Amino acid sequence: MVTAPKKVINGWAMYDWANSAYNLVITSTIFPAYFVAISSTGNGNGDHKVNFFGREFVNTALIDYALAVVFLVVAFSSPILSSIADYKRNKKSYLRAFCFLGSAACVSLFFFTPTRIEYGIIMFAIAALGYWSSIVFYNSYLPDIAAPEDQDRISAKGFALGYIGSVLLQIICFVVILKPGLFGLDETDKTIGARISFLLVGLWWFGFAQLTLRVMPETSKEERQAKKHVLVNGFHELQLVWNQLKHMPALRRFLFAFFLYSMGVQTVMLVAAGFAKKTIFPNPDDEPKLLITIILIQLVAMVGAIIMSRLSKYIGNLNVLILSVILWIGICVGGYFVQTHMQFYFLASGVGLVMGGIQSMSRSTYSKLIPETKDTTSFFSFYDVTEKIAIVIGIFTFGYMEELTGSMRNSIVALGVFFVLGLFALLYTKKVYEKHYASIHH
Length: 442
Fold this sequence. Notes:
CATH architecture of the largest domain: Up-down Bundle
Low-confidence stretches: none
Radius of gyration: 22 Å
């Protein structure tokens, strides 16, 4: 296997630049804050209720439920998508289709006004489906274009470009929201800045993705026609991984721990902006502070990932994960009691510190535990499905607890329980893991 030319590598990495803006602007910052702001209008009693096809929901819980449904769909479809990617059945066409679906949904969010709640939630869900599904095919290109010894470097290049691109567009959107007059926009329309941001995300994603689609290799017709049973194969491969897990105690225990603490980690990342907007920055004048805080989390997350990686060389992967989960428990306690802006800034810094680290460390720990096999995609498909189902449970629980108790702070308690269970599972895993890792090196 020879690494592809620089033009192909740069084209592949540019898809990270293209789509990461969606993850930051739509999932993590501007959309949740905008939705909370417009759906709280007229709720003088402070209950933040919205009507969705005749049923009343707490506004932030409705977003949680929408994302839970999307992740459930992705969890069940990703084995099929991974199978398609494995068998190279024209993955470029699927990458293009999901990219267009997601970016078109982002553009459509320009028409999401306070009177069109159902429309906004549906477009938000379709954008999420397009993003997460396209990522399956994007990731599957890496072993096709990069030799094993170059994959870490090229993967990191994509991550770095994605980070830079998303923050750059976030800052542009930030200026549009704060100073709409600079762009000739109607300053009396308080929704125009956010809606232009959604439009920009869709155009950015679609536009820069063309650089990727132009250079990615196309699969030959013969290769596409030669593959059969592609829909069944993905689930069959998951079954094979499940059967192998019965004979791998370290991997089995680690996956269980990963499942438990992922319910908390991923949910925090998805609901942080909504929680902050509703409980810490409810005043419209506080919007800039919220957006700056989310950018701060992204900056600290990069530093956190590097720190965790270096720390693992001294104390080992599992000890770093145990430390991270303990810090997450502390963050949940802090999140329950946080009241002031300054307290939230400290809490956000803590989230950033462990957010990037626990994700990168979980994936690298898993990769060390899987057996030597050419079929790594099946094992990582299993890993991804585990994570997606954890997100479904975590985010649904968060939304349901808020609706049940009337407070997002009580939802944080539920997340804290997931982290505590995850900590016990990691401690349970540790002895078997260390024995396994020692056997590899002796």
